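Exam revision sheet. Question 4 asks you to relate a sequence to its structure. Input first:
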Amino acid sequence: MSIKRIGLIGTGNMGSAMVKGWIKADPAMVERITIADAIPSTAKRLAKETGVAVANSNLELVEGSDLVVIAVKPGDIEHALDGCLEQFGRGKILVSVAAGRTVISLESIFPVDVAVVRLMPNVAAEVNAGTICFASGNNVDPQTEEDVAELFRPLGRVIVLSEKLFAAATAISGSGPGFVALFADAFIDGGVMAGLPAPIARELTVTMLYGTAKLLMDQGLLPSELRHKVTSPAGTTASGIAQLERDGARSAIIDAVQVAAGRAKELG
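Answer key, structure tokens:
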């Protein structure tokens, strides 16, 4: 791979997850990563935890990197790259994980043609099980696209998408872990109300979620197929699903995805 030195601006939840995921997949990555953050103490805390280097400024980070990941809020990108734009005219690659910011909007801030890749990862990248939506700009040649995809594959599954689908994808893969965590919390509370100790309810819930996802992945089942597989006539699952339908659980999830997708568009 031609990408040797990686710079990451923004060490919040997503930036930290990517750094930790890279190092978990390959400890030697620690020598290739430099980080920076608007709050220096945040970057230093991640550096202490992982061993990566901290740049004294964003300009220093960009100058020393082949690829720069920008992991800040959408409206903060211009400020984060202020004074660094001309450095990208030397063949550097910009990868953005900012929700809503299109490739064209990112390309337009540079005075020269820059290879821009837009990603939408999720926090499961930290444990190398992320979902990473991927779209390339007009200045990205096929080899560069493959090099960038190869860099991110250790963090999870890379899914190439048309950029017009990113808002919907963000609502599922980006916001989805938060939605699922809410459901998991409800399962645990329900287990406690049914008489289980909280630690056991948590263990049962987490292993159930993991096993369900693995069944769907490994066997290629549709969710409806798995649902029918575990639903016996007049059984416990049938009773529970009937109650979920009465409570509007399905429509609530659909509405949540629609609202999140709408918000992703607004952020752009």
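Marking note for examiners. Residues 174-267 form a domain with the ProC C-terminal domain-like fold fold (CATH 1.10.3730.10).
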